[in-house]
């Protein structure tokens, strides 16, 4: 896309050009498919293992194969996005994601499905950084915050409504359709890209550190593999400690290389910016907690409380509604008054919501034991996500927004992956009522730490009085 001075800088706040509206829709749809697929699979796991076999091992790897490649490759995708153009990277990611979705829906064996999920995660790594970079390159000031708020409401809601959609398809049709629904938004997004006649801006000196990419991918992959399989094999097994040690060594070599290579995929100087590194610390705690809470609640409501897949998905609907209703408005307020207050109060509010799950007992009642938590969590989430994204990307110049977005998304995905890998340890081996309560306490603690980190580290940027007047 040709990157010109954002039109919002010359237009009244709240108005947008046709190109800006098209960019926003493309960004939303491209990210939507990645976020939707990352969560829709949870409620389909029992049906997948029933048909293809493999039990809990198959269920674990169906989720984690996607997250490993997504988390490990998203840094590479961000660097490629900045170097070779956001539109090109988006097209590659969308096509790859669509092909992988079709392969998953037709998977004859569990092994084929797991490999296809890994390919799908790799394609997904190209979607989110490029879509956010399109927004930061075409919007400025308070208009950018509002655009990110809309993007947040739509894409983050996909992460929450995923279990609902998956539940309906599992109960009424087939788990395979849960993956085929990705094809529709992918087709629409590709059509919008063609309609817009966008042109990519490419740096003539662009280069990618492929060796660094390999070190990062293998390093993260080895450590994550060890965390996932450790409950099954134990730390004394060479199949666990050897990948952990080798992965850690490779990742350290990756960090060392990034200090000297000409075109790093992880520019370490980004972490000299206070709001960037502090925001990523908060991201790690908050998104780790969200992943833990999302998985444990959906699974417990089915296995512990006896709800159907559809009803378990419906449980999160109040959170979704509040996020959609409030996120854009909160994004605008954050653009005017700064993100620090919202990034502090939001996670702490979510922590309180998680603690409300301690009221869940053997005599189960959704209305009195789960619904209050979903409402409070929705309020906290709406206060948090758009200001968090704005604070991190707003701290870095538009010319590096792709890699900045990639780093933040990598932190979020890896934090979620680690939290899910540690579920068995957190709940004590079994997701019974006591384990559910332990998970709620850990979720609350992580959220509160994320809020405190934001309060101590985030600094509000200077207010734009011109936009305030508008």
UniProtKB/TrEMBL annotation:
It is found in: Cell membrane. It comes from the Bacteria. The keyword Metal-binding does not apply. It holds the Pfam family MFS_1. The keyword Membrane applies. It is a multi-pass membrane protein. InterPro entries: MFS, MFS_dom, MFS_trans_sf. The chain crosses the membrane at residues 22-45, 65-81, 88-108, 114-135, 147-169, 175-194, 206-228, 240-256, 277-301, 307-327, 348-368, 374-398, 410-431, 437-458. PANTHER family: EXPORT PROTEIN (PTHR42718:SF42), MAJOR FACILITATOR SUPERFAMILY MULTIDRUG TRANSPORTER MFSC (PTHR42718). This is MFS transporter. It comes from Microbacterium insulae.
């Amino acid at each position: 896309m040709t990157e010109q001075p954002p039109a919002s800088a010359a237009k009244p706040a709240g108005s947008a050009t046709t190109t800006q509206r098209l960019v926003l829709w493309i960004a939303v749809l491209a990210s939507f498919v990645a976020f939707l697929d990352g969560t829709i699979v949870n409620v389909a796991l029992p049906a997948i293992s029933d048909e293809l076999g493999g039990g809990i091992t198959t269920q674990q790897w169906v989720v984690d194969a996607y997250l490993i490649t997504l988390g490990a490759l998203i840094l590479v995708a961000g660097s490629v996005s900045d170097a070779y153009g956001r539109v090109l990277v988006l097209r590659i990611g969308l096509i790859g994601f669509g092909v992988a979705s079709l392969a998953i829906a037709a998977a004859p064996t569990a092994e084929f499905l797991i490999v296809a999920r890994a390919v799908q995660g790799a394609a997904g790594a190209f979607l989110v950084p490029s879509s956010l970079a399109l927004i930061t390159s075409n919007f400025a000031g308070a208009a950018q915050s509002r655009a990110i708020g809309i993007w947040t409401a739509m894409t983050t809601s996909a992460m929450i409504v995923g279990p609902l959609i998956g539940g309906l398809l599992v109960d009424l049709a087939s788990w395979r359709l849960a993956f085929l629904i990705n094809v529709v938004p992918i087709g629409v997004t590709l059509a919008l890209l063609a309609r817009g006649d966008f042109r990519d801006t490419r740096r003539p000196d662009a280069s990618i550190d492929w060796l660094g990419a390999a070190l990062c991918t293998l390093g993260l992959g080895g450590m994550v593999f060890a965390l996932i399989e450790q409950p099954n094999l134990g730390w004394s097994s060479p199949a666990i400690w050897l990948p952990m040690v080798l992965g850690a060594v490779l990742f350290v070599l990756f960090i060392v290389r990034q200090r000297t290579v000409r075109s790093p995929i992880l520019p370490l100087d980004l972490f000299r910016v206070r709001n960037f590194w502090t925001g990523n610390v908060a991201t790690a705690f908050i998104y780790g907690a969200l992943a833990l809470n999302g998985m444990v609640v959906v699974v417990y409501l089915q296995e512990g409380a006896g709800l159907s897949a559809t009803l378990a998905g419906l449980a999160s609907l109040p959170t979704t509604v509040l996020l959609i209703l409030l996120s854009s408005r909160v994004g605008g307020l954050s653009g005017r008054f700064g993100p620090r207050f919202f990034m502090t109060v939001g996670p702490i509010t979510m922590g309180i919501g998680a603690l409300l799950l301690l009221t869940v007992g053997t005599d189960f009642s959704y209305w009195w034991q789960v619904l209050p938590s979903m409402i409070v969590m929705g309020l906290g989430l709406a206060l948090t996500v758009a200001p968090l994204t704005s604070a991190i990307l707003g701290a870095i110049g538009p010319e590096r927004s792709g890699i900045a977005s990639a780093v933040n998304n990598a932190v979020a995905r890896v934090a979620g992956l680690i939290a899910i890998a540690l579920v068995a340890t957190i709940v004590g081996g079994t997701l019974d009522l006591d384990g559910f309560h332990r998970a709620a306490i850990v979720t609350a603690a992580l959220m509160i730490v994320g809020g405190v980190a934001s309060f101590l580290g985030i600094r509000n940027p200077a207010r734009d009085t011109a936009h305030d007047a508008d």
